[in-house]
Amino acid sequence: RSVTGPGAGNDPDFLVVGCPTDGPCGGGVGDPPLSDVEQRTQMSMWCLLGAPLIIGSDVRSLSRFALSTLSRPAAIAINQDVLVARPRVVRVTENRTVQLWVRELHGGDVAVAVVNLGDDLVTTWLSLADIVCVGCAPVGIVDDVWSDELATVVEGGLQLTIKSHESRLFRIVPKP
């Protein structure tokens, strides 16, 4: 049963975006630090999950990259969406390194994360037929959340190249 909804959300713990890249948060012993790519992937997944955006880093010493990642309006809008829909995995590659996550947003938009868990660069196809509503044409306005490029109308899907441990986060407005 789904427990995600208004007043009940996912809480995978605090974000380590902005922690030093040469050691763990707080300077203690623990997990290795995250690269910039991995920090952005963590932020993407927290936003898609609708998880609390609580950071464990010292805000006084955030890098420009970390600050821009944590304060990206398009990412925060996905995180704070009022529908509070439960995200779901709709596709996993055969070797289990690439996952396609989808979350419905208020007003009919869809948030999509394509995550490369592997150690190698991958090229994959993002099919809008996997994402937009059943019976809808696979056409939508696609906004790449981490890109400064304008949203574009896409028909069919997108060919994506994704770095090791990178995610691509999109907001898609399906076209009827």
Which sequence of SSEs, written as H and E, runs from N to C?
Answer: HHHEEEEEEEE
- Helical residue percent? 10-25%
| Helix/strand/pairing category | alpha+beta
Give the percentage of residues in beta strands.
25-35%
Number of helices in the DSSP assignment: 3
Question: What is the molecular shape?
Answer: globular
Strand order of the largest sheet: 1-2-3-8-5-6
Mean pLDDT: 88
* Contiguous runs where pLDDT drops below 50 for at least 5 residues: none
CA-to-CA gap between the ends? 30 Å
Could you tell me the radius of gyration in angstroms?
A: 16 Å
Total number of strands? 8
Query: Which sheet architecture does the biggest sheet show?
Result: 6 strands, antiparallel
Could you outline the blueprint of secondary structure elements for this entry?
Blueprint: H1 36-49, H2 64-70, H3 73-79, E1 88-92, E2 98-104, E3 110-116, E4 122-127, E5 139-144, E6 152-155, E7 157-162, E8 167-174
Antiparallel strand pairs: 1-2, 2-3, 3-8, 4-7, 5-6, 5-8
Task: Describe this structure as you would to a colleague.
The chain is of the alpha+beta class and 176 residues long. The protein contains 3 helices and 8 strands. The protein has helices spanning 36-49, 64-70, 73-79; strands at 88-92, 98-104, 110-116, 122-127, 139-144, 152-155, 157-162, 167-174. Strand 1 and strand 2 form a beta hairpin. Helix 1 runs parallel beside helix 2 and helix 1 packs parallel to helix 3. The model has no long low-confidence stretch (mean pLDDT 88).
In short:
The protein is of the alpha+beta class and 176 residues long. It has three helices and eight strands, in the order H-H-H-E-E-E-E-E-E-E-E.
